[in-house]
Write a structure and sequence with these properties.
Elements: E1 6-10, H1 15-26, E2 30-35, H2 41-48, E3 53-55, H3 63-75, E4 80-83, H4 98-126, E5 129-133, H5 148-168, E6 174-180, H6 195-199, H7 209-220, E7 231-234
Parallel strand pairs: 1-2, 1-4, 2-3, 4-5, 5-6, 6-7
Helix pairs in contact: 1-7, 3-4, 4-5
């Protein structure tokens, strides 16, 4: 690539998305970040500049397309996509309403499909890569006491990610997933700070956003040029 590679990140204002933005910027990527509320907006603007910060609700139809077009208008290229957002909900299946299931699906699965749809042509042109966010333990298809609807949406995303990876590989686009375990940070779901949960992690601690960002950075890098359709857990052994 002649110019600095350009990456578009969702969830960029806090947590894992922000850690990815910092890591990728440090590796020479030009970072465009998406946020939804105004929380964190000023920090993002100070860090990356107003023309690289985009406000959007990516569950709305057409929103992802608009953000991708804004990036392309500014940069003329798009080399990476990192989709680091996805609503979380804790509750037994019997306590999970229809609206909640729909909302989790839109936030975790549909927004990812929209983002890739918006970015597909540009990624094919650049021979780029995309990383989506799952959650630890998807491969076992185990039942969940309190996270059934959330995990169901992430499991759908895993199948969809592999399918998109299959379709895009011949076009030179690599698609993969990172699945974090328990990663506490300011603004994270309260469950990530639960000492009992953390005590059950084989490595004996919660993960750091920077550890997740390192995996994302690797998956986007030429070092992972032959890695396609994989779900990389960054979980300290959680739910193995
Ligand atoms: N942290 C963990 O322990 C953990 C574990 C497993 C999986 N994950 C996954 O990792 C990803 C990132 O996690 P996180 O803990 O960093 O999440 P987070 O703290 O909830 O941050 C997500 C960010 O995404 C933004 N966002 C949410 N919905 C949006 C929408 N509809 N449109 C645009 N932006 C939206 C939020 O912006 P606003 O604040 O403005 O709403 C928020 O800043 C998620 O997919 C999550 O499921 C995290």
């Amino acid at each position: 690539m002649a110019n600095s590679p350009v990456v578009l990140l969702s969830g960029a204002a806090q947590g894992l998305g922000l850690a990815c933005a910092e890591r990728l910027a440090g590796q020479g990527w030009r970072v465009h970040g998406v946020h939804r509320s105004s929380r964190g907006r000023e920090g993002l603007i100070q860090r990356f500049g107003a023309d690289q910060v985009h406000q959007a609700d990516l569950t709305e139809e057409g929103a992802a397309q608009q953000v991708v077009q804004a990036v392309l208008a500014r940069e003329g290229q798009l080399d990476g996509v990192v989709h680091a957002m996805g609503e979380f909900f804790s509750g037994a299946p019997s306590e999970t309403g229809r609206d909640q299931i729909q909302s989790l699906w839109r936030s975790n699965m549909l927004s990812a499909a929209d983002l890739l749809d918006g970015a597909r042509a540009a990624l094919r042109e650049s021979g780029g890569a995309a990383v989506f966010f799952g959650t630890a333990g998807l491969d076992g298809l185990r039942g969940r006491e309190t996270t059934a609807a959330y995990t169901a949406a992430k499991t759908a995303l895993l199948v969809w990610m592999k399918s998109a990876a299959l379709e895009e590989a011949p076009h030179g686009v690599r698609i993969n997933m990172v699945s974090p375990g328990v990663i506490p940070h300011v603004g994270a779901a309260p469950e990530t700070h639960d000492p009992e949960r953390i005590a059950r992690i084989p490595s004996g601690r919660g993960g750091k956003p920077e550890e997740v960002a390192a995996a994302v950075n690797w998956l986007l890098s030429p070092d992972a040029s032959y890695v396609i359709g994989q779900n990389l857990e960054v979980a300290g052994g959680w739910l193995l």
